[in-house]
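Journal club prep, notes for RB
We'll compare a predicted complex against what the paper describes. Inputs for the fe (ii) ion case:
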Amino acid sequence: MTAFARNQWYVAAYGREVGRDLLARTVLGEPIAFYRTEDEEQRVVALADRCVHRRFPLSESRLDGDRVVCGYHGFTYDTTGTCVYVPGQRRIPRTARVNSYPVVEQDTFVWVWIGDPELADSAAVPRAPHLADGENWTSVSGMEPIDADYGLLVDNLLDLSHETYLHGGYIGTPEVAETPITTEVDEAGAIVRVSRHMDDAECPPFYARSTGIEGRITRHQDIEYLAPCLYLLHSRITPAGQEAPAFHTEITYAITPSTEGSVYDFWAVSRDFARDDEEVTTFLHDFNHTVVMQDVDALNLLQRALATEPAGYQELSINIDTGGLAARRILARLAEQKQ
Ligand code: FES
Ligand SMILES: [Fe+2]
């Protein structure tokens, strides 16, 4: 189990998922109901998903304009979470309110702040601008819940040598596991960078079928992990030994702890080539979804296996784990920071 860093921004949903139907998500153990206001602004509202009366989930309730009417006995809440109506009496108890969480909608994501609202700085939300930049990038995306501690997903994404084994025939080739990495850690900025540059590598189907390259490739994988939630993999492919044409892919993950033992895996693939080619779009969506499910299955399995291990079980780390270990250190420090 990895502790949660509360005073941080986390992706709770894609903007497209939030509308006039209440959406339930649990972030850092807190059940939250999301919806969009009716006015022009169509702002995203995030309220604690438990009615103050008898804890009925507000996400299973209904909207009346921009108010939520509890589906059990009708307690009614405004967008700040203040109760504005209770049945059978005039006086509304002063404590009749639910928490309302700070929200920022940016780069197609809905970010939510679980910790001290005084510390929520909307200017500090990490950026993934390519996701909303339809001029220069074409993106496909999705989300898969995983029944694993979020730390296992962080480990997974910071060490891509697993591509060779878990994703062989999809995105992995022998060169990924064979090529050493370089790791840079920005402790103050809580950023881990892991790079792997392959000069002469086999082209995996993911890139062969999307770029049309037939021979071998020069392949650069440059990871930037902005702890705790945002992971960017800058990928650059050229035909082996050539500078051009260069094919860029931005692979984005948002890693959002849901509960102890469950995590939301938001994934996106953005490309700067064949941008209007629907076939490539469909291919990358379906293919990457398959790859994500290979990770989901592996992490579900790993979580179950670890649950049977005695406390304090031993691991054996090697060079490929440098980035993951740095990330664990940073996450532990962020989790310890004063609330
Ligand atoms: S539980 Fe919501 S009104 Fe009773
Ligand atoms: Fe993977």
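Talking point for the session: The longest strand covers residues 247-259.
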